[in-house]
Amino acid sequence: MNARAKFCLGLLVVTGGLLLSSCSLVPQAQPDPTRFFVLSAMMSAPPQAPAGKAPVVHLRQVELASYIKAKPIIVRRGEHEIEFREFARWGEPLELGIGRVLREDLVGRGAAGAVLAAGVRATEGDPDFTLVVRVLACEGGANGAVHFRAVWELATTGSPPKVVARGEVQPGDLRWDGKSEAALVAQLSKAVGALTDDVAGGIARSGK
Predict the structure, then answer these.
(1) Contact at 8 Å (CB) between 100 and 193?
(2) CA distance readout (Å), 50 to 44, 106, 111, 115, 205
(3) What is the 8-class DSSP label of residue 67?
(4) Structural domains in the chain?
(5) Is the peptide bond before 160 cis (omega within 30 degrees of 0)?
(6) Which residues contact 115 (CB under 8 A, 6 or more apart)?
(7) Residues with Cβ < 8 Å from 131, sequence gap 6 or more?
């Protein structure tokens, strides 16, 4: 092979290598790693139906502390530090998810004949009670703790309204593995179940 042929062959090899290198630099589409989670009704206690016909409850929109209104699931790393798990998100606004579970659970256990969501009008007379719920914490701890705290108030719908029951729920026995967001959501569902237990007890004590 003469010098000219060797030069041409070398040029082809270099050019081919450059073309292959440029092709490998083209970004490849990556699958979206984001996962979405929802709370579920737990029916953690037997029905606590009051005597007589179960009352109709109007559930106001659940109020959340501002920092837990974000879509990502939250893990607390210290008193002043939180982590947003950007690839683990709530599949619905958290206040709607908590409200949905409360409605399903209260009706399912017979504590209420119906639970009306905010903005929904009663179909059979006026509600007997108005329920206000404020959630002040709803996250996991990096150390495996589950942080959930909620306060609630049940009032009659008469004029003037009268508060007949109130409570605060802060379960201290729930744990998760610190890694699996699915495990954390399952424990937070139990926490909302504990909130339902407390509210159901308040309805039963009202004697309505």
Answers:
(1) no
(2) 18, 12, 7, 15, 8
(3) G
(4) 54-206 (3.40.50.10610)
(5) yes
(6) 56, 57, 58, 59, 102, 103, 106, 107, 131
(7) 57, 58, 59, 60, 102, 115, 152, 153, 154, 199
* pLDDT recorded at residue 13: 47
> What residues pair up with 88 in beta bridges, in sequence order?
35
pLDDT in tens, 81-114: 999 999 999 999 999 999 999 999 999 999 999 9
The answer to whether 142 and 75 have CB atoms below 8 angstroms apart is yes
**Collapsing DSSP states into helix, strand and coil, what is residue 207?**
coil
pTM, full prediction: 0.81
Residue 174 is classified by DSSP as: -
Cβ neighbours of residue 78 closer than 8 Å, sequence gap 6 or more: none
Residues of the chain with pLDDT under 70: 1-26, 43-52, 119-125, 208
